[in-house]
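Hi R.,

Here's the chain you asked about this morning:
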Amino acid sequence: AMKHTYGMFMDLGASLVQRWTIRVEQMGSQIMEVDLYEEMLPVAVEAIARSGFGMSKEHLQKNGEELIMAFKAIFMNMDGGSTAMQRARFILPYIIPPWLIGWLPLTPMVRRKRAIEILRGKVEWVILERIKQGPVENNMRDLLDSLLSLTQLDSENSHMRKDELLSHCMTFLSAGSSTTISLMSTVLSQLALHPRCAEKLRKELLEAFPSGLESSEDVEKVDQLSYLDAVYRECIRMYPPVPVSPRVANKDTSVGNYRFPKGSYIVLPIAAIQVKKSLWGPDADLFRPERWLKSPSGGATSPFAFIPFIYGPRSCIGSRFAILETKTVVAHVMLSGLRLSIAPASEFRQFTFVSSYSGLNVRITGAGVRQ
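And here is the predicted structure, written out as tokens:
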């Protein structure tokens, strides 16, 4: 079911490497510094826009700049550079109704609200254009076709109203890109921080693809590489794309010796669980991909110690998409000869319910520069 996206993943990885290589070569020192989270954002947005909503690469090249800027306003610098604002954004949803927060006259809130309106307008335009085209018989082209099949815009018997369709599309577009931006940023930044692991991964990739990645069929081979998978798992163990997951009890329930009345607000601390020493051992807070080579569980004592995409029927439906996209893009970068390292004096942190990075500055060195 995912194979139709393989060519796009290859294109995204190759295009990123090409852009970086051209920019590095334009630098006299063959070294450039970038905000890694900002660099990953257009890659992830293009992936979900093309695969989920049928936007062509050419359309995005001509009209995608406003879309990218809207995403930057929503997902980048969400703390406004202020620790107080960061804390306020985290606390406000607990004490003020969510619908009211967007109307507060705070600069980041106003900027974000405008960006959401732009994003909503873009999505609504795509929906209207697809409705004009009409369905393709016996062929679901993408996610939008699937959602439209549930929506009869002029019928009371429709499974989904027009406003619900728009809301679902907004959710898929934002959630499908924000988590993948985080995943790609995390894996590449951890490889930049751990050169020994980067070289070990580069060796595995060169042995598997001595001539580089050549076709969409290589995506399946990339997915099967043991050390790449170990690096990926260790990254999302220590830095899960969703650090905490809120839940509301829809009935009186109990978990072990704990009772939760109906309506209780529960936060699942995924990031804390995945580095808990009683579950993972004394090296739980160390970046060690090798733990996954020794055991499919990474050495954890519980099957629920590793839940980056949650678990069961409520697990993330887009996890395979995110995994394959991230692995393919990382493989392209590692095979390119470009070297990544964290820029000197760079300070970065994660925040919000979907991991976003602020200040993740990475130095990219050209393939011909002696290390």
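One quick note: The longest strand covers residues 31-35.

Cheers,
M.
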